[in-house]
Structure formats: C-alpha cells, structure tokens
Amino acid sequence: MNIYDYSVINPAGENISLKDYEGKVIIIVNTATGCGFTPQYKPLEAMYEQYHEQGLEILDIPCNQFAGQTPGTDEEIHQFCTLRYNTQFPQMKKSDVNGEHALPLYGYLKSQKGFEGFGKGAKALAMDLMLKKIDKNFKSNPDIKWNFTKFVIDRNGSVVARFEPTADMKELERCVTSLL
C-alpha cells in the first residue's frame, strides 16, 4: 500500500481519495483550535499561498484527542480557521489520529515515520515533561503525541518526514521547498 490507497472525509461527509493529490507535495497535519500551537496555522497558510501553484497541498485534519483542544463542530472549526487565519487549504472532518477509531491513513503515516522526539529547546522540554506525566513510555511508540504533528509526502507518494509541533516551521518549509 501507499499514500494513494487512503482517503479522508471532508466536513460534508464525502470520501476524498488521496489519489486526487498524486504528483503533489502534501503536508498532512492534525490541528486544534485551542492549542498553544494553533498559531502555526499562520505559517502553514503562508506556505500554502506561496507554494500551492508549484504543487503544494495541505490537508488539515482537526482532532480533539489532545486535552480536548478542538471541541467545536466541523463548521465552527472551519469558521475559526478562515476568520482568524484566512486558511484556504482543504480542511477535513474532525477525526481521531490515535487509538481504535483513528483514521487508517494515520496508521500508515505512523508506520512510515515514527516519533523521534521533540528536539531541543524550551517547548520540546515542556512537551517531554507533560507527556511523561501522562505516559512514561510515550517515546517508545509511533503515536501522534500532540496537535500540529506534520507529515510531508513527496510527489511520488512517499512519506519523507515527520515534524513534531515543536519543530521550527522554517525547517518544515525547507523540507517542502526541496521537494517542489
């Protein structure tokens, strides 16, 4: 199987095949509207505006699995993102990314790029400390650890990188531009 064998569901309940994005560079990101990382919508939208015509797609998959930071309906989430951050990239139906009800797409993404840590710096340390309180073994599994984990897919459909929410957004942009 590859990325193009999966689909996501849009807020209208329609199945969207990732085959529709074949030949594009894709960022798949689980998002939240009430998270400390929510301002990452701004650089994501800037990348989308700058590189969309060159083949960048961003798939926004809202998720409420991390401290209940996405409590709204799909419509409320969409209104928040478009009014506050002027997002134009496709937003999907709120979905789980871990556990029994996780989107199959996320099982595949995690199998291709597991968790390698939060990196260095104050945010990384804070995430490590917080997650150790929740699960002492969090580092040993590939699960999504928090909102705004980003997977980058190349034009051939290969998962080439995973960026944790603590990663520098400029690193994400460098990765994307190297693939365009």
Provide a descriptive summary of the structure in words.
The chain has 180 residues and is α+β, with helices and mostly antiparallel strands. The protein has one domain (3-167): Glutaredoxin, CATH 3.40.30.10. The chain has 5 helices and 6 strands, in the order βββαβαααββα. A hairpin with a 5-residue loop joins β5 (150-153) and β6 (159-163). It is globular and about 40 Å long. The model has no long low-confidence stretch (mean pLDDT 96).
List keywords for this structure.
180 residues, alpha+beta, Glutaredoxin, 4-stranded mixed β-sheet, two-stranded antiparallel sheet, 5 helices, 31% helix, Glutathione peroxidase, GPX_AS, Thioredoxin-like_sf
Q: What is the fold's blueprint, element by element?
A:
Elements: E1 7-9, E2 15-17, E3 25-31, H1 41-51, E4 56-62, H2 74-85, H3 104-112, H4 122-134, E5 150-153, E6 159-163, H5 169-179
Parallel strand pairs: 3-4
Antiparallel strand pairs: 1-2, 3-5, 5-6
Protein name: Glutathione peroxidase
Active site: 35
Family: Belongs to the glutathione peroxidase family.
The sequence of SSEs as H and E is: EEEHEHHHEEH
**Segments where pLDDT lies below 50 for 5+ residues?**
none
User: How many beta strands in the DSSP annotation?
Assistant: 6
Q: In order across it, which strands form the biggest sheet?
A: 4-3-5-6
Q: Identify the CATH class.
A: Alpha Beta
Question: Approximately what portion of the residues adopt beta-strand conformation?
Answer: 15-25%
Shape: globular
From the N-terminal CA to the C-terminal CA, the straight-line distance is 23 Å
Q: Indicate the mean pLDDT.
A: 96
Helix content: 25-40%
Coarse structural class: alpha+beta
Specify the biggest β-sheet: 4 strands, mixed
Rg (CA only): 15 Å
CATH topology: Glutaredoxin
CATH evolutionary superfamily: Glutaredoxin
* Helix segment tally: 5
Number of domains: 1
CATH architecture: 3-Layer(aba) Sandwich
Protein name: Glutathione peroxidase
GO molecular function: peroxidase activity
Family: Belongs to the glutathione peroxidase family.
Organism: Aminipila butyrica
